TrEMBL record:
Keywords: ATP-binding, Biotin, Ligase, Nucleotide-binding. Transmembrane segments: none annotated. The keyword Ligase applies. Residues 13-473 form the Biotin carboxylation domain. InterPro entries: ATP-grasp, BC-like_N, Biotin_carboxylase_complex, Biotin_carboxylation_dom, Biotin_COase_C, CPAse_ATP-bd, PreATP-grasp_dom_sf, Rudment_hybrid_motif. GO terms for molecular function: ATP binding; ligase activity; metal ion binding. Residues 132-337 form the ATP-grasp domain. Signal peptide: none annotated. This is Acetyl-CoA carboxylase biotin carboxylase. PANTHER family: CARBOXYLASE:PYRUVATE/ACETYL-COA/PROPIONYL-COA CARBOXYLASE (PTHR18866), METHYLCROTONOYL-COA CARBOXYLASE SUBUNIT ALPHA, MITOCHONDRIAL-RELATED (PTHR18866:SF33).
Amino acid sequence: MTTPRCPSYASSVLRKILVANRGEIACRILRTCKRLGIATVAVYSDADAQAPHVAMADEAVRIGPAPVKDSYLNIEAILDAARTTGADGVHPGYGLLSEKRAFADAVAAAGITFIGPPPEVLDAFGDKIRAREVARKVGVLPPPGTDGPLDPADTEAVAREAERIGFPLLVKAAGGGGGIGMQIVPDAAKLARAVQACSDRGRQAFADPRVYLERYIEKPRHIEVQVLCDGKGGAVALGERECSVQRRHQKIIEETPSPAAFFQGSEGEARRQKLLSDALRVVTSVGYVGAGTVELVASQSGEIWFLEVNARLQVEHCVTEMVTGIDLVEQQIRVASGEALAPEILANERRGSSIEARVYAEDPAKKFAPQPGRVTRLAWPEAGEDLRIETGITEGLDVTPFYDPMLAKVVAFGETRADAIQRLDAALGATTLELTGPAGPAASNLTFLRKVLASEEFAGGQYDTSLAEALVKR
């Protein structure tokens, strides 16, 4: 990890933190806790008994069998682990229980500090329909869409709303995230089926069948803003991230600052500053505390609309850390401990460029299908000030079908964007990764990531969310 340029000192409040997560993000959080002198507790399922995060922690507690519903989503098992070990803080990481109010409430009821936004904030942003209303009230507009949830069975009402909004449009699960429960609908003929499919997916993944419609922005760019608030009046937007290299609506390469043409020059900088101000206005309107991300969508001309708020740490937080020198996990812990953001954090100084590539056990040639198997050979390039390797695997471990197949994040820094691209490409090229599945060699996306970096569109910074799937066909 890059050494923080901002001063660091041990927190005086939290003494032992349980990390309610797994994989690379668990390792990432544990590393910061150790640097701060805070004792740590890992939790693990049967499938993760030999995982690196288990060995890294001072203590580790088994919480159940491999399926997430029986382990990493088992609130009572996690709380039992916290009570048994005497943890006075719980960090949820990202995904899993990180944005679940029921978990935050249960942690608080146990007399333990939840290292994340307060429950009422999770309520405000955990529901995308409500989040749109929060943004609208402070003058930050979402794309045109429905004002409330739709009943998939009321096909006439759905058709009327679709006609009002116009095609193409998006059907979205109200409780969704990570591209789950979302479909692009080009015309009326495919509407009813898409609404029902997204509703079913929302019910399965989030226990929430509600859906809504939103105008689809063609050739969109996915922009997001990292925010940090202390609940005491201190709030800062730590720059924007460009997250438009995606497959299945899920990100695989992220960078900061955005290279989009509409952020260039004096007019572009004015647009950037307005974007940061808008993002802060949305989160502070509900009393936000901690780290979070305001996600937005932009047209090629630079019109920007609000999408949602992820009330947690993002997978791609590392690129922001690289250009600011701020350890966002440390700041989450400090804010949760009742500390105010330091002046040097609020000063929001950024330099250079950073790009992150997510390494997955997946086959781009097969629609990015996950590739479970065993990591039979693994070697990373040497990390340093300008290169981070964030991973939760080691050679000999299995990539199971129970969890997301992300193996690592490779994050490069450069004084210029070109430097960052070159450094990241060299790091990916120096990586040795071999996977063996049940029927023989299994694929990863390493070669594909380098193909993206080498593409004319990415090199020129003028790409949109269709780039990754277009490159698969070349």
